[in-house]
Amino acid sequence: MNEKKVTYLEAISQAIREEMRRDESVFLLGEDVGTYGGAFKISAGFLEEFGPERVIDTPMAEAAIIGSAVGAALMGMRPIAEMQYIDFITCGFDQIINMASKMYWRVGMPVPIVIRGPAGGGTKGGPFHSSSPEAWFFHTPGIKVVAPSTAYDAKGMLKAAIRDNNPVLYLEHKLLYRMPELREELPEEDFVVPLGKAIVRRQGEDMTMLTYGAMVYQCLKAAQILEEEDDLEAEIVDLRSLTPLDREVITESVKHTNKVLIVHEDTLTGGIGAELAAILAEDLFEYLDGPITRVAAPDAPFPYAPALEAAYLPNTEKILAAARRLAAY
Amino acid sequence: MDYLKIYYYMRLTRAMEDRTRTLFLQGRIVGGVYTAQGHEATTVGAAMMLRDGDCIVPQHRDLGMHLVRGTSPRAVMCQWLARGNSPTLGRDGQLHIGDMHHGIVPMISMLGDSLAVACGVALTMKIRKHPHVVLASCGDGATSTGTFHEAVNFAAVQKLPLVVLIENNGYAYSTPNEKEFAVHSLSERALAYGIPGESVDGNDVLAVTAAVERALAHARDGNGPALIECRTFRVRGHSEADKADYVPPELRAEWLAKDPIRRFEQYLIQHHLLSEATKAEIEAEIKATVDDAVSYAEQSPSPDPATVADYIFAPDGPVAIIGEGQAQNPRYVNALDTRTGRPFSTVQPVKEVVGKR
């Protein structure tokens, strides 16, 4: 194994460490991030390197964590507020929706904060350790929402988020944290992946799959099978950044495939896919040769039992079935 | 301590709010109006104890704090009248304004939330070794929120330079103290956080200044936060649309008799610190200031409707740490209001500021 290759999790860790070294206004606060090094060990060794004033173990208090991040950002700092699991972001919801996201629009003061944490399911986390909270924030003006799917993007987008002058919700898919296939060698020099840019992960002519996060890999598997068994070439657009949304890449892709399958792990109703479908229907209607099709979790809370979790999550099979229905048009 | 300055700001605060009420009753203010008759000793007294570089985190009844710290009466009236040149460009109203360069954190309507933000300001002062203190206020109502607890607890654990000033005015809207909490005094809550707390007569400005001075010294010396409950009374409604007929008339009369401005005025006269001539001068100056603020606001433009969805995101660029180096150098994104390209307009130019900043 190439020792230079890093996991998605190590890429996140590198991004925070390098930004903290580069800019002394960057600091990390959250539950168990210091002495313990974080529940997933993302900040292991940080306390020793940066000290307790820049790696702050907080009480179990998400409103205080996010609110403090806002206050520090108003002072010109660049705090990174860690949610131990992203599910707990609801405990600090108001500080994001009413405090952070409206601040610049209301009073002209930038709030450069990153709120980040492990999102997504597939780890038997049950209803409170598996959620995908992006739609609440996608709906909210004034906060950027990103969900990287590779180690390269995880690092580059986190650096971009930390340097951004706005609140950024950075969603780490915990299933990808230590996935061996995702290990890759990253550039030694400093790099960022600009927020707001989607990327085509696989080129194809027969349909576009719009997706992000861990679902990118389910789509890739489905596309492989579609190629082998159905002679269909699916193009996969990894949105990466939900706000701002890269309408250009979406438009480019749909204009030549003329069919769209939207895949996300979050629940269906009012999800990211609903807005994508509305955009496609409004702006690209004349390019569509089939119904805009969505594959998402059912409108139910995230379940615990393996059999239920498997039934709940979108997967290669569900994507394949939907893609074949769509291709038939 | 400049007693006449305190007196001036208490009177200015009352006069601004009286005029605001008139504007509301005349239909010239379209939204809700929240005033704080009776709070002047608490808000003005507390803010007068601050130094340059300290920060306030005021709430909706803290016009007195704002004015002492330099918030422009013109800016306040532009806010009430929803003008395009108000500090929020007409996007928000009331006292939801601030200017970090002058140590004023803008509030939101979710009371209690600002205390967590205050922690972040104080945390920055601690991390960056600024010798300053944050004075954050809240009402009795906000002490029931989860964020109050989270913030005060976090501040205590981190030993943040924070003074929490609870303005207990008897009611959270229509809900009286006995339906809000079961402790005898809100300063008892300090015990739960391992920090000092005291309750004072919030209508006695000298009692307020003495208590705030003790708390600020405690926080400034690195001992962590302190909590003060100022017992006062909201003699008017929650908003000007609220008749407050749930308040027993004799209770209101009792507190009206303890009016903080009249009490302080009597004290000043008794101690020969305020002559009739000086009083008349102060009144004339206040009237001129309020008149100017109202006429300035009334002549100011309405916001351009075409801008309603502008400025959702701040632009790229370096951000200065407030209070350090050349933080107001325009190369920084937070040096001035990048929405307009002009300086933040909450605080008037320094030369016009009578109080501290």
Quick structural overview:
The complex is a heterodimer of chains A (329) and B (357). Chain A has 329 residues and is of the alpha/beta class.
Task: Outline the fold blueprint.
The complex is a heterodimer of chains A (329) and B (357).
Chain A: E1 5-6, H1 8-22, E2 26-30, H2 46-50, E3 55-57, H3 62-74, E4 78-82, H4 93-107, E5 114-119, H5 134-138, E6 144-146, H6 151-163, E7 168-173, E8 184-185, E9 199-202, E10 207-211, H7 215-230, E11 234-238, E12 241-243, H8 247-257, E13 260-267, H9 272-283, E14 293-297, H10 306-312, H11 316-327
Parallel strand pairs in A: 2-3, 2-4, 4-5, 5-7, 6-7, 10-11, 10-13, 13-14
Antiparallel strand pairs in A: 1-8, 6-12, 9-11
Helix pairs in contact in A: 1-6, 3-4, 7-11
Chain B: H1 3-25, H2 40-47, E1 55-57, H3 63-69, H4 73-80, H5 113-127, E2 134-139, H6 146-158, E3 162-168, E4 171-172, E5 175-176, H7 177-180, H8 189-193, E6 197-201, H9 205-220, E7 226-231, H10 249-256, H11 260-270, H12 276-299
Helix pairs in contact in B: 1-2, 1-3, 1-11, 1-12, 2-3, 2-9, 4-12, 5-6
Which fold does the CATH topology of the largest domain in chain B refer to?
Rossmann fold
- Secondary structure: helix percent of chain A: 25-40%
Find the structural class of chain B using helix and strand composition: alpha/beta
Please provide the ordered H/E string of secondary-structure elements of chain B: HHEHHHEHEEEHHEHEHHH
At CATH level 3, the topology of the largest domain in chain A is Rossmann fold
Structural class of chain A: alpha/beta
Q: So what's the oligomer here?
A: heterodimer
Order of helices and strands of chain A: EHEHEHEHEHEHEEEEHEEHEHEHH
Shape by Cα distribution of chain A: globular
Rg over C-alpha atoms of chain B, rounded to the nearest angstrom: 20 Å
Annotated CATH homologous superfamily of the largest domain in chain A: Thiamin diphosphate (ThDP)-binding fold, Pyr/PP domains
Rg result of chain A: 20 Å
Please tell me the CATH architecture of the largest domain in chain A by its name. 3-Layer(aba) Sandwich
Q: Mean of residue pLDDT of chain B?
A: 95
Strand order of the largest sheet of chain A: 3-2-4-5-7-6-12
Question: CATH superfamily of the largest domain in chain B, please?
Answer: Thiamin diphosphate (ThDP)-binding fold, Pyr/PP domains
